[in-house]
Hints:
Blueprint: H1 2-51, E1 89-90, E2 97-98, H2 105-125, E3 128-132, E4 138-141, E5 147-148, H3 153-159, E6 164-169, E7 188-198, E8 201-210, H4 215-221, H5 223-263, H6 279-332, H7 340-370, E9 379-380, H8 381-391, E10 396-400, E11 406-407, H9 411-427, E12 432-440, E13 443-450, H10 457-460, H11 480-490, E14 494-497, E15 504-511
Parallel strand pairs: 1-6, 10-12
Antiparallel strand pairs: 2-5, 3-4, 3-8, 6-7, 7-8, 9-11, 12-13, 13-15, 14-15
Helix pairs in contact: 1-2, 6-7, 7-11, 8-9, 9-11
Amino acid sequence: MFAVLTLVATLPLVGLFFFRIYDNQLIRQTQAELIAQSRVLAAIYAEEVTSRLGAGIPLGAEIPRELRPDPPDAVTPIRPLLDLTADDLFVRRPDALPALRPAAAAYVAIGARLMPIILETQKVTLAGFRILDPQGVVIAGRDEVGQSLAHIDEVAAALRGQYQAALRIRVPDKAPPPIYSISRGVGVHVFSAMPVIVNDHVAGVIYTSRTPRNIFEHLYQERGKFAAAAGTVAFFTLLIGLVVARTITQPMHELIQRAGQIGRGDRAAFRPLAHYGTRDFAELSRHFFAMAEQLARRSDYIANFSAHLTHELKSPLTSIKGAAELLLDSLTGPSGTLTRAEQEKFLRNMLGDAERLETVAQRLRELARAEVVSQNEQSELADVIDRLRERFPDAAIEAGGCDGHRIAMSGDIALIVLTHLTDNALRHNARHIHIEARADAEVVVLTVANDGDPISPHNREQIFDAFFTTRRDSGGTGMGLAIVRAIMTSHGGSIILSPLASCVGFVLRFRTASPDLPARTTFDPDHAANPIHGCHDNDPSHNNSMSAG
């Protein structure tokens, strides 16, 4: 934004720079025209002098060898090099001075012969012409005939045989309009001094001058082209504005409006935008809506979780409070209100409720840890299975295909997952637990099945919900499978319940430990239809038995 504003601020300076460059081009164009006109007159002048050499016409100074022109057949162009920014701008041209001696009669005759050509040329080119003899005396021109211009710098250089041009301040007949002051070229005059060379001697000088064309006059003459260029620029500017509005402004305003709707809790705002404009903005919008939906789901989860947590904590707290009040009444009231056996019972109930609260707090800490993802963690699946067997030495745990698989999860976290599944199976009368692993594209699919009490169809939909348990009387918290799902989700994996109702089986999908894998891997539900080894639907009576703890 700073760069754009800086560019906009410098646009007027760029415009002034354009005027200066354009002025410079007009000055060089004027110099080129003077060079061409002077060269033609110099060629005619040289022919006149050459024809009079036999009559003894005097020539000027001899040109030094290093300044002599190339052979007649060589091309020796004189390039216009005047520059407003580089060359010095001289004061107005000095006035002519009286000649030390008059021009020779032969040169006066040559001037009289060239005068009609000068007058006809001046009608078209509007240039000023002065024809000088070898001493710098004017022999032809509208003014200053018979006077000397040899003291002028560019004329003095030409009398030595070297072409020279100069920019001088021009004093106009009347003041130019104020806007013309932007164009520096309107206040200068171009002077060109072309030497006439005969037999390597200076025979005279063609001294010409002209005011460059004014930039505004030139722009007016070319107004059709400039109008077409301005129209083209305006058209493309409008087109760019429409493209920017279509691809950036409109989608941005719609996204801002959707963000406001989402902030007010409008779930209908999660629908895609009508138009994304650019691919980058489409990707940004998709990520924004994905983040917003995730935050919304998270908000719903927290609200639901808080309600369940309040319910779970309310029961043991109420029980502890009631038992404490009864014990306090027994101590402060008449003796014999509660027997010692009743007091011990209330105290045991209070300890049991406190243990339940402690267990719930521990599960909550595990759930919070499960939702925090650690980067660049990996472990060998076979090592995790070995540690699981050490934790449950009395359980019959069978494992197959686990060697050689590395998963993108630390060994401790993976052990927590399998520990919850194993402990839950053993508490539901499982005698054998079968674990089997297989590689599937960029994930490792792990099936964990047991022969314990099946899960009833009614409870299958709620088995991963926090605080859902069928063992509340025996101390179940309903947090085990919720912790497992949170761990798998936070590590880019998934867990589902086997679709078979005859046994309890889970399908876990771990990301493989490879740096080339994406950050998340989406679960393919088609794999859930594959039968889990160890589950056989051979007992229809199990379909409505116990639910999971």
